[in-house]
Amino acid sequence: MKKYIITAALSLFSIISLSAQSKKDAQVSKLYQNYIAIKSALASDDADKTSKAANEFIKTASTIDYKLVSEGNLNVLRKDASVISDARNVNSQRETFLNLSDNMIALTKEFKVSEKPVYVQYCPMADGNWLSDEKQIVNPYYGKSMLSCGSVKSEIK
Q1: Torsion angle in degrees (nearest 10) through CA of 156, 139, 106, 21
Q2: How far apart are CA 30 and CA 92, in angstroms?
Q3: Ramachandran angles phi, psi of 34, nearest 5°
Q4: What backbone torsions phi and psi does residue 5 show, to the nearest 5 degrees?
Q5: CB 139 within 8 A of CB 112
Q6: Which region, left, alpha or beta, applies to residue 127 given φ > 0 means left and ψ of -120 to 50 means alpha?
């Protein structure tokens, strides 16, 4: 009987741990979705839309628990997003997007942010990486002028 009680207790603990983990990942997943919105706005050469998407990113980053992602990491992400939000031209936004992307790639390697694969893509002209939720290249660094420039560098599952 003791064996069954111990097994049941351990099973319950495992279920609680798994649900807590998926809840934590949900916060970071929302941040990832906000990042994707920034990337898409840049790819469409829309500075206003990019600015609004960066504001949403900041709001989401402000809700993430410091126990989950360190305060320092969140501050760096918020700082980059703030610079993107405040910039009124797409070229300035793209410069800071390089840093934001590098930091988001590191975060995405730590947390499961999507049920689907997340692609790390690379543009040799900008010498920059970005994350995408699809394999097709939609370049945020050059937008409509070179929308399909780049390649899939790796896949995060």
Answers
A1: -50
A2: 25
A3: -65, -40
A4: -65, -45
A5: no
A6: left
Tens of pLDDT, residues 111-136: 989 999 999 999 999 999 999 999 99
Query: How do beta strands 128-132 and 151-156 pair?
Result: unpaired
Element at 104 (helix H, strand E): helix 90-110
Strands (E), 26-105: none
Chain centroid to Cα 1, Å, comes to: 47
Q: Give dist(CA 60, CA 52) in Å, integer.
A: 13
Q: Smallest Cα–Cα separation from 135: which of 117, 147, 114?
A: 117
Q: Could you tell me the two tokens for 41?
A: 């706005």
Place 23 in a pLDDT band, splitting at 50, 70 and 90.
Answer: very low
In contact, 36 and 131? CB cutoff 8 Å = yes
CA dist 64 and 149 (Å) reads 34
The confidence score (pLDDT) of residue 19 equals 38
Q: Are 94 and 145 in contact (CB under 8 A)?
A: no
Phi, psi of 101 (to 5 degrees): -65, -45
